[in-house]
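Q: For a teaching handout, I want to show students what a protein-ligand complex looks like in token form. Below are the inputs, and the small molecule is alpha-D-galactopyranose. Please produce the holo structure.
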Amino acid sequence: MRRSSLFLILSVLLMSCSATSDNASNSSAGGGEAAITSSIFGSMPDGRDAMLFRLTSPSGMMMEVTNYGGIITRWTAPNRDGTYDDVVLGYDNLDGYLKENPYFGAIIGRYGNRIGAGRFELDGETYTLATNNDANHLHGGIVGFDKVLWGAEPFTEGETVGIVFTYTSPNGEEGYPGNLSVMVTYRMSPDNKVEFTYEAMTDKATPVNLTQHSYFNLAGTSSDSILDHELMIMADHFTPIDSGLIPTGVLQPVVGTPFDFTTATAISSHIDADDEQIAFGLGYDHNWVLRDGSEEMKLAARMYEPTSGRIMEVHTQEPGIQFYAGNFLDGTITGKSGAVYEYRSGFCLETQHFPDSPNKPEFPTTILRPGETYSTMTTFSFLTDGMGS
Ligand code: GLA
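A: Here is the structure, written as tokens, with alpha-D-galactopyranose included.
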């Protein structure tokens, strides 16, 4: 852990323990102080308590997050009139997440997205992973990082509030080699930005590809379709997939395809195009190859919702981004405050290395070796169209 013990003591002292069970998710802007409160969210099947932390920013932004899966359960952002609404999908209580969670709000690991046939070779050995998506391995397997209880340490740094989550994934978990220590930090600053920092170290070479799987609906109602949202992705290529959603290995130009989001385009425009790639993804469920593949922070995507005026910008050090349009939502999940999550009522923008990289030597590597530190950052910033962005 990097934080000094003084800082630890300070953050514990600053942490108030008042309950956070009310459903305050609509509010007006700001004026308050940076604060974190905590309460018990519920009991895990093994009897351990899962906690719920509420982070509030002087701007008026509020996020609730549990150490079960690092799941963000609520996250408010302003519309053009300055009203803060909850813009993420999820459940009111822990039981909802324990029963059935299509990765709402969660940390994903060890490997975001798919590894073909749940197998890969590394240093002359073949590793077999848990398969949980037909024949493939998805989002870390049967019990991925979205389903474990993380250590959680809240902190404040002036007007910034955050939480450090820690988890040690044992050698062999879901089939992966090496003991992997993971630290994920959420940091909310008063400019309505949340920074996600992912760090990991291993004692044996292993693939690592960590991400965040929040489902957003920027209209703030979380049950309407997201098809009128307008998306720009800073990518001239995407990675086409086979019928099992595994990349073929090709980097295909987006120009002239339904995957061209180089300028702001309504999601509805081509999501039902007569196109083999759209058919395989049931819409958009693909990885885009960012134009700037460097490890510098750069704008990856911008989503705009015209009725509320909300804009979300994603900046990242990662080379790719998965845009998933909620094609597997089908109205069978009832979430927060009775919201029914219909087909395509939430979207995900998952920054990442490309799917199936352990089997695609031509893709940027995802292998972490002993002595190296995995370190990557992604930010989600909320603006409005009244701000001249
Ligand atoms: C990712 C995958 C999708 C789907 C969702 C969650 O976006 O690519 O296929 O698994 O997560 O359902």
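A: Two things your students might notice: The pocket of alpha-D-galactopyranose is lined by residues 102-103, 113, 138, 245, 285, 322, 324, 328, 348 (CB under 6 Å). Residues 82 and 267 are 25 Å apart (CA to CA).
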